[in-house]
Design a protein that fits this description.
By secondary structure, this protein is α+β, with helices and mostly antiparallel strands. The protein has helices at residues 3-14, 18-28, 46-61, 108-123, 150-155, 161-166, 175-184, 211-215, 253-268, 307-327, 347-359, 374-378, 405-424, and strands at 33-34, 38-39, 65-68, 74-78, 89-95, 132-137, 198-206, 219-225, 227-236, 240-241, 276-278, 282-285, 291-292, 295-304, 331-340, 343-344, 366-369, 384-389. Helices cover 37% and strands 22% of the residues. Helix 2 (18-28) runs antiparallel to helix 4 (108-123), helix 2 crosses helix 13 (405-424) and helix 4 crosses helix 13 (405-424). The longest helix has 21 residues, at 307-327. The chain binds glyoxylic acid (GLV) and manganese (II) ion (2 copies).
Length: 427
């Protein structure tokens, strides 16, 4: 790396205001906040909209151009005075929707670190050739509407609006209805064209695992993300009276589903503890204590770094479900509801992030992501990489989720340095 490039990157990093970033993380967490530091900010909810309005206020204060799109993404752009006309922007961000039992950092950190890094590059008054843009991707988590990753899925052409809008929440509201009222809550925003080119995408995120803390590191470059497949299994039985129906006369959906769930889990687990298998939703219908269940719906979140292993497990799951149906007395169906293959980020960009760690006096380190991120979809068509920061005890998807102010600032500095360098480049 040349001396000329190193120096502006360090200047941008030095302009990061860690206290402002921390303050904003706390402020944003009030939208949907509960308990000491929990956040429940479901996609397209009133809390998600309130968070969006706060982001828009901060963007207006900084003179950024705000745009949206039909998938509900939010883009905040700074075009430097010397930018070449039509130059593609360098994009950075994450999501502000959360899990129902979420924390302050999962997602919100990447958006606010992206904003802080953009402001730092702007403050460093560097002769940037291209715009910098912050993005808050919509419905990343997929906890309210499945599938998740719909904002980045739409922009990257992986999902169409019809599929996104068809999602249904637990109360029967369609994703389309929720999205329409969410978009109506911030009227008048210009639309960002779906095909607009993106020069590069960087996403900062808490690690959501214990590795960095165990290594005594604040931040790292992320080089790969393991594959994720989601399944929905439906077991169909027959409702019957709990007090009068002999076992032999029942088609008890719960009994079949419980045995099937245990069988599928046993198929997935491996001695190395690499495969991740989670049943996070198990719905029993009608859910009445004195009615034999007529139906069970359960979800499976399956993850592995190897696409072949995921495909083999998906096949084994399908065979096991078919065998359960043949054995009777219940019907069994399984379908894949979301499929993100394992991906490798852009090697040059990963290396660039490692260089920035070194530039800022942090050890070089690269690692795999166990969690899914919008970055994994962006990676298909755009040079993409991620910056992870350490989080306490690896806890995430939990109200106790925590990262230190030191790690929060370190990640934003790495991001600012990398954004500055990318923004300075020609072509
Ligand atoms: C995103 O939160 C994921 O499920 O990995
Ligand atoms: Mn996230
Ligand atoms: Mn998450």
């Amino acid at each position: 790396m040349s001396e000329q490039k190193t120096e502006p990157a360090a200047r941008a990093a030095a302009s990061v205001d860690g206290e402002r970033l921390w303050r904003r993380l706390v402020e944003l967490s009030r939208h949907g906040g509960f308990g000491e530091r929990g956040v429940n900010r479901q996609a397209f909810s009133a809390e998600d909209l309130a968070a969006r309005r706060t982001l828009l206020e901060w963007a207006a204060e900084a003179g950024l151009e705000a745009r949206t799109d039909p998938a509900g993404n939010l883009f905040l752009r700074w075009t430097p005075p010397g930018a070449e006309s039509g130059a593609a922007a360098v994009l950075s961000g994450s999501h502000v929707d959360s899990q129902p039992l979420g924390g302050r950092f999962d997602g919100a950190y990447g958006v606010l670190a992206g904003l802080e890094a953009l402001l730092a590059v702007k403050a460093a008054a560097l002769p940037l050739r291209r715009p910098l843009e912050v993005v808050a991707w919509s419905n990343e988590e997929g906890s309210r509407f499945q599938p998740g990753l719909t904002g980045s899925g739409w922009v990257t052409g992986k999902l169409d609006l019809e599929t996104i809008r068809a999602g249904l929440d637990a109360t029967g509201v369609t994703c389309g209805e929720a999205l329409d009222s969410f978009l109506a809550g911030t009227p008048g925003l210009p639309q960002r064209p779906r095909e607009e080119p993106i020069r590069a995408y960087l996403e900062a995120h808490i690690e959501q695992g214990p590795l960095l803390e165990a290594e005594g590191l604040l931040a790292a470059a992320v080089d790969t993300v393991q594959g994720i497949k989601w399944f929905e299994v439906v077991v169909s039985g027959r409702a019957a009276h709990a007090g009068t129906t002999p076992i032999a006369h029942r088609a008890d959906a719960f009994v079949t589903a419980a045995a099937l769930a245990a069988e599928l889990r046993a198929l997935a687990l491996d001695a190395e503890d690499t495969t991740r298998f989670t049943i996070g939703r198990f719905e029993v219908v009608p859910g009445s204590p004195n009615t034999v269940p007529e139906k069970v719906l359960f979800t499976i979140d399956l993850r592995h770094p190897d696409a072949g292993r995921l495909a083999a497990l998906a096949e084994a799951f399908a065979e096991t479900c078919a065998a359960a149906e043949r054995a009777g007395p219940c019907g069994v169906s399984i379908r894949v509801t979301s499929d993100a293959p394992p991906i490798a980020f852009d090697p040059a960009l990963v290396q660039r992030i490692e260089d920035k760690l070194e530039l800022l006096g942090l050890p070089r380190f690269r690692m795999r992501s166990g969690a899914g991120h919008d970055a994994m979809l962006l990676a298909a068509g755009t040079p993409t990489a991620m910056v992870f920061i350490a989080c306490e005890a690896g806890v995430s998807h939990n109200p106790q989720e925590y990262a230190t102010p030191e790690a929060v600032t370190a990640g934003a500095r790495v991001l600012a340095a990398t954004l500055a360098e990318l923004g300075l480049e020609e072509g």
